[in-house]
């Protein structure tokens, strides 16, 4: 019964990932694309977690944490770029 539920959840996550890919490609604004990219990160975390449950192992849970951190940092960087136009601000000295 658990294996059937995991397979159904994997199928639904895969279908929702296709919708997110469509939003990345066709999204009317850059903000829509950033949100869809963040959503794909969450969906990948869900898929890896479900595969870990299906295989009855905890080996992939470290990968889930790493992808979560990278997804968060990517979202913050994109948001900062959309807001200010740069990701890393550098102070310029007027001495040159």
Model description:
By secondary structure, this protein is mainly α. The chain has one domain (2-84). Helix content is 78%, strand content 0%. α1 (2-26) packs antiparallel against α2 (30-55) and α2 packs antiparallel against α3. The mean pLDDT is 88.
Keywords:
96 residues; elongated; 3 helices; 78% helix; mainly alpha
Q: What is this structure, in a nutshell?
A:
The protein has 96 residues and is mainly α. The chain has 3 helices and no strands. α1 packs antiparallel against α2 (30-55).
Strand content: under 5%
CA-atom Rg in angstroms = 18 Å
Structural class comes to mainly alpha
Overall mean pLDDT stands at 88
Low-confidence stretches: none
Per DSSP, the total helix count is 3
| Basic shape | elongated
Number of domains: 1
Secondary structure: elements and pairs:
Layout: H1 2-26, H2 30-55, H3 61-84
